[in-house]
């Protein structure tokens, strides 16, 4: 099963769903596809689309998924990485009305260049990403919380001295 996550943005991301549906039609995706669509309204008989779902249901689907296709939201990426999932990631873009700016391209570049995800900069290239996903091994994700806590403690100590 493939889980497609579009996050919970208040703007649609139809471009990604259309690209996935095209890959199903081309038989490049043969598995069941479940989409967490958020506010993106899309009708198809090729995928199961759920607008919003409880976190337990989402976590269960994330765990069962063979791999994830997702928007370049940090929360979505980190949740997948914590479970060691292979992820194909596509940035929402301002010019398509998918976000207020193009910061997701920076997120895509950062996680992609560090080997955590398979970045897709153009939805016409999803087919190439699908060919890579089977052999792709994501870099193990290690959170940066300890560094942040140390920096915060040092700053507090500076202020108290």
List the helices and strands and how they pair.
Blueprint: E1 2-5, H1 14-25, E2 33-36, E3 48-50, H2 55-64, E4 67-71, H3 74-82, E5 87-90, H4 103-113, E6 118-120, H5 126-133, H6 145-160
Parallel strand pairs: 1-2, 1-4, 2-3, 4-5, 5-6
**Proportion of residues in extended strands:** 5-15%
Level-2 CATH architecture: 3-Layer(aba) Sandwich
* CATH-derived topology: Rossmann fold
Work out the radius of gyration: 17 Å
The whole-number mean of residue pLDDT values reads 91
Instruction: Please give the share of residues in helix.
Output: 40-55%
Structural class by sheet pairing and helices: alpha/beta
Protein model, in words:
With about 160 residues, the protein is an alpha/beta fold. The protein has a single domain (about 1-160), classed as 3-Layer(aba) Sandwich (Rossmann fold). About 40% of the residues lie in helices and about 15% in strands. It has helices spanning about 15-25, 55-65, 75-80, 105-115, 125-135, 145-160, and strands at about 1-5, 35, 50, 65-70, 85-90, 120. A six-stranded parallel beta sheet has the order 3-2-1-4-5-6, with helices on both faces. Helix 4 links the parallel strand 5 (about 85-90) and strand 6 (about 120).
